[in-house]
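Re: duplicated header lines in exported structure tokens

Our pipeline writes sequence and tokens for each protein into one text file. With two proteins the header for the second block appears twice in some exports. Here is an export where it did not happen, for reference. First protein block:
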Amino acid sequence: MRLEAITWERLGDLLAERFLDLKPDDGSPWPRIAFDGAPAAHPGELAERVAEALRLRGRSALVVGTEGFLRPASLRFEHGHQDVEAYYDGWFDTGALWREVFGPLDPGGDGRVLPDLWDPAADRATRSPYVQLPPGALLLLHGPLLLRHWFPFDFTVHVRLSPGALRRRTPESEHWTLPAYERYESEVAPGDTADILVRADDPRRPAWNG
């Protein structure tokens, strides 16, 4: 796959321009976009950049991170603090994401989205208010391992790090999660599955296949 060098600023602008005309196939008035990537790849920073570019173009966008939908610590660490299987399959409350984020944006939904549910630091509910999205507003959901859950995304962006870069940029205390990303690459091949691939090995000089 051929990738073209680009700046983060230009990438945000070009993605925003592309999303202006995005129409969900299921008739929903709210386009749903994934920014998939390991925490070390910082997909949320790209989502925020795109959201700002959209706002400058007169379109509302809500950025939601899956870290706000972690399960309680008692469930995440039920089999230990470094259980790779639990991290891959059970850390994120996908049921809550379906109920509180995707369900309201289905055709006929009311557009009231809960931006987060659980504070992992305090290990308690956030009690954040719902956000009302007007028709045409975009959901920008970012987080790891997103493309294996059958979420109804209308467009997907995968921010990729090579195995070496992922290891270098992941804190040593989190190296135990790396086998989960190896499995994700093997089972899902997100770089091939996503609509847009962004290579971020050099954090200052990304490249993409746009």
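Second protein block, exported in the same file:
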Amino acid sequence: MKISIITVCYQSGATLRQAIESVLSQQDADIEYIVVDGGSTDGTVAMLEGYGASISKWVSEPDKGIYDAMNKGLLMATGDLVGFLHADDLLAHPRIIAQMAQAADDLKADVVYGDLVYVQKENPHQVVRYWRSCAFEPKLLKRGWMPPHPTVYVRRHLYDTMGLFDLRFRIAADYDLMLRLFRAPGLKTVYLPQVMVRMRVGGASNRSLKNIIRKSKEDYQALRKNHVGGIVALMVKNLSKVGQFFKR
């Protein structure tokens, strides 16, 4: 089973190499690694050139934002399963992709996902929050549930039916896509109960109060667009994050 992993980046030279190395260090996994850069001027292009054929495909050109770049990566992907590793993030350990692929293969899953930890920006070994997910049930969507998107691996053909990231959303296109995906009838999902990704804090959605407010507005729009719920689901979704600071 071939796994496509997509990293999108822009001026991310400070952390990109660690992300790349965490992919290239994966063992016993057939990986197609794709990097989509937004035209960085911080040495990213030279870094990518230095990896040669170790990176399967890469492009550096202007885009319309992170979700446009992610869509480009999806269109380039040829793997059986496709997932994302952001330039600030790290795969949890060198066999996590092999374990994920084995679970998907054994259970003939359409989607595999797991847990995620938020870590300090300067020290990715220092955990700040623990996002522990759970096995999927449709009723969870009305409670604002979604899996940690950086841990989600999806059968590539599903994007042909549900579409790509909706660029009308500037911050919550991943939530909109997860709602579309998990509402699909007959979807077979597998939850891998272990940490798959170490994610540095400070992402776009929580970088400022303005972004937090915009994220909440877009989350509400995504809920309404997908006929899943409204203000109650949004409130539960936001309140559920509090427990992530205490779970281990």
